[in-house]
Fold this sequence. Notes:
The protein has one domain. By secondary structure, the chain is mainly alpha-helical. It has 23 helices and 4 strands. The longest helix is centred in the first third of the chain and has 26 residues.
Amino acid sequence: MFLKIKNNFGLILLIFFISFIYFLTLRGVNGNLYPNGKGNEKIISNTPPFETSLERGRYAQTIAIAENHTFILDKFRNFIKPDLAWYNGHYFSPFPPGVSVLATPFYLIGKKTQLNQLFTFSTSAIFSILTGIILIFIGKKINFSNRSIALMLLVYLVASNGWAYGVTFSAHPISAFIISTFFLLGLNIKPGKNNILNFILLGFLYGLNFYIDYPNLFILIPLLIWAVFKSFSSHNEKENYEISIPSSLLFIILSFLVSLIPFFIFNFHYYHKWIALTNSYNLKALEERGVTFSYNHLSNSLFNKKSYSTRFDFMSIPRGIFTLIFSSDRGLLFFFPIYIFGFLGFIMGLFKKNKFIIPLFLTFLFDLLLYGSFNDPWGGWAFGPRYLIPVLPLFAIFIGLAFEYLEKRTIFKIIFSFLFIFSSIVALAGALTTNAVPPIIENIPNTPTNFMLNFQFLMNNMTSSFFYNTFLRHILSPFSYYLALLSVTILVILFIIWLPLLHIAKNTKM
């Protein structure tokens, strides 16, 4: 599958533009940085770009893999707190190791150029851009116009918190890539045809979540069921109705099991059991559940405490949904109101009987229900609803669908433009500053609990951008830099929405 340059030059140009602004907002500092470094190599915890344990834990794990060929983080335990796992006398990151494994080659390249931290963090940006490319293929597959496809890309990449987490070191952009690719593979499945390659890739991608982010295994269930049933073929002859189940479905199971071989080996080597989830040994989770212990006298039996049995409560789902969708400190529609058109696109898709609408929405709903039942739907100190990022590319498809149906209505385009611009204003402020925004429940005096904190950073001349801090900080202020990037981004958005000169012909075959 490939894109014809002649018919898709605008989309290819847009990918290069987004890649460029991601580079301009990528978080980092000059030099090679180490948790136990000295002088210019020393990392200052709780400050950008290592403001939360999410970045610190994965970065320490990357260094351990690259430098010591191990996942044990004993010498970095103080650096990665409060999210710190322990088992059998050793400290680990509580996060699955896949993100750090993927980042290791970039770390090694960056080390040679005295930019190990910057190259490591670029892993998220690369997967964000790859997700944008996947969205192009999805848009082509479902016969969207090039204009709608372009807006889908921009909605996810520059009008959501996918931007802020795409320029730091996070699992969310990689999860978004996996889920989007999963949907694309499902679209490629045809009943009664040879789907072996698609099934192999689906099984592999599903297993990959054991290394990236465990909740994706639950979130992907609707797409997995949809893809499987889509491969069934039916025959109606006289009074007999037959459904044929393809034997090639076995390849999903086989590739899934093969993908788990490293998972089994990893667990047996470090935890002496074939199946173990790293976050099951998170000491922070024990503290949150009221389990008392001393860091100097740890025991494996700690993790058998009944008070640590679950972190999910289905009675909390209404509170969680409100937090993730509507609240002023994490709500998707409060931070990025352009996504209201996603719900409109879903409703319109139902009336138009688009076949992919139900599995797409169920995937979003599974994510919402899972994290809505979580004891921390706020995602700790975070920018926007970070738990929704993995499914935001799919939800952007609904926005593209709404634009497909309503683009000729001027009032729609005016409202669409306004909400798009507002969402980008917020998204860029987050990308340039910090993801460490406290939730409202912590009630910290004189500290905003939403994007106003990010604007406060900008007004106080604070930014995490590597490019700005390296090349421009003596030339213009962070806020001026923000305005310059925002102006260009808004011009691109308005150009695509309004100019009739843009090529919007229905896609040709790839």
